[in-house]
Design brief:
Blueprint lengths: L1 E3 L3 H14 L10 E3 L6 H15 L3 E6 L4 E6 L6 E6 L4 H21 L6 E2 L30 E12 L6 E13 L5 E10 L2 E4 L3 E20 L2 E22 L2 E25 L2 E12 L5 E2 L7 E3 L4 E12 L2
Amino acid sequence: MIAVASQREASFRALQAVRGQLSDVAVALEVHPVDRLDPSAEEQLRTARAVAHFKKASVVFWFDSQRARVSIYLRAPGGGRLLERPVRSAGVEGRYEALAVIVRFAVRGLLQGEKVGVRLSPVVPRRAKRTQAPPPLATTPPPVARPALGLAMEVGYDMDLFSDQVAAAQGLRVALVGTFGQQRRWEVLVGFRMEAPLDAQTDTVALSLRRFPINLGGRFLWRRGRVLLGAQLALTVAVLTARWSVLEGGEEEHNLSLHAAVSLSPSLLVGLHLIPRLSLLLGLGVRVGLNRWEYRARVEPDRLLLSPWRVQPALSLSLRVEIH
C-alpha cells in the first residue's frame, strides 16, 4: 500500500479496513510511505511500478481521499494490469470498507488467475483516458464483506458524585473493548475500577467503605474524521466491604460486612483521535442504583452515617489504544 504523508488519517483507516478484509488471505500487507503522490494518473502508475519492483510486490494499491478513488496495480510480465474504482457513492464512513472489498477481490482474483483490471502496455501512456469507464472486475460477483473484528484497551479516570456525606467516588478504570461491524461502530466492553476508600464518621463511629466495581456494557461509536461520538450503556456490579470502627470503654471494636450493589449506567461519549491507534474519550452520564444501601452504626441506629444517591452523575476520561 502506498501511503501519502499528507493523508495520514485516510491512509490509516484504509489500512485498517484492508487488513481486516485480507485477514484470511495468504498475503503479506506492507506500507510504503511517500511524501507526496503526483495527481496525474501517468505519474501515479510510474510510482506504483517502481514500488512493485522495489518491494517485489504482486499488487500495489493507493487511495486518493480527495477524489475518493482507489487504484490497484497488478504486476505481471508484459505491462501488468490496472484497476481503478470510485468509492464516493459508499458515503464518508462506508468508502473505506468499499475500498477494502475492492482490494480483497482484486487480490483473490490475481491468486486465482483471473484477468482483473485493464491490461497495460509495457510503456506507460503519456495521458491516461479519464473519461473511459473501466470494465467490470471479473465475471464472478464480489464476495460479501464480513464484519471486521478489533480489540482495544482503555485506561482512565472515573468519578461519581456519591452522596451528601461523601462528595465523590473516584478511581482508575481499566477496560478491554471488542469492536465489530463493517465500520467497527459497535463495541462490547469489560472493565474494572480501582477506587479510593469512602470514609464517613461521627464522634463515636467511623466507616470505611471500599467498592470493587466490574462493568459490562455495550456502546455505539461513530467516527467522523478525527472526532468520535457515541452512546454507552453498562451494567455495574460492585462488591462492597464496610469496615466499622467503634470506640467503647477505651477499646476499639472492628466489624466488617460484605455485600453487593448493582447499577445501570447510560452515558454519552465524545472523543478525539490523537495519533493513529491512540484516542482520548470523555464520557458524561449517570449511575442509577438498582439496589440501595444505607449505612447506620449498630450503636447509633437512629443516625444515618452514609446514604448514597440513587442517581449519581458520572464522568470518565480515558485513553484508548487500538490493539488490533
